[in-house]
Input
Amino acid sequence: MTRILVVEDDTDVALALRILFTRAGYEVVPAADGREALRRLFADGPDLMVLDVGLPELDGWQVLERTRDMTDLPVLLLTARGDEGDRVRGLRAGADDYLPKPFGNEELLARVEALLRRASPARWAGAAHDEALRLVPERRSAVWRGEEVRLSDIEYRLLQVLVRNRGRVVTTDQLLDQVWDDPQGIGRERVKFAVLRVRRKLQQAAGTLESDPLEAVRGLGYRYRGDQGV
Output
């Protein structure tokens, strides 16, 4: 059965969502605050998250950021705020869809169904991406060929975006948007130098300059190509 993590601190709204999704044939995993949401995310392995922005403990923006550090699980944001700025912020932060309150039940179900149809099984950043690399979100590090590589927040997010798109070119503009939240592309050289830093750290960990899973694609961007077995 498809499992939906519902993160909502308003007990009346949470109950209504639970009834709505249960009647639609979904299994509901409830969480009343941000910290509980992250615990249930690990423990229950949901297929989709419905996330309220206004939460105690950790707010919805923080939950979304930490979720995106770990997985590409589909996330639908619910919020009382309906202005364009919040919608843009949510989508840029990694939300897959956005629905302001009050909302209609049929529209909510339709959006959930659409997200589930488009979604592949969620991938987790802590899982092995090949025999050589594993990301460790709680430590902001990577294990490359058996050696832990400590990364800055920017370096970790850069590697995570490239790994999530394994085999596909991620353009410089996309990296600026997703890693630096800079969609206008100001300071494009920062991408080049961040990639060079990550490469150097991976090479040092492996003890060889030829150990490099990142590929520069001239004029376009960068690609994670995986372990080449060097």
The chain is about 40% helix and 20% strand. Helices lie at 11-23, 34-44, 60-70, 84-92, 105-118, 153-164, 172-180, 189-206. The chain has two domains: 3-118, 133-224.
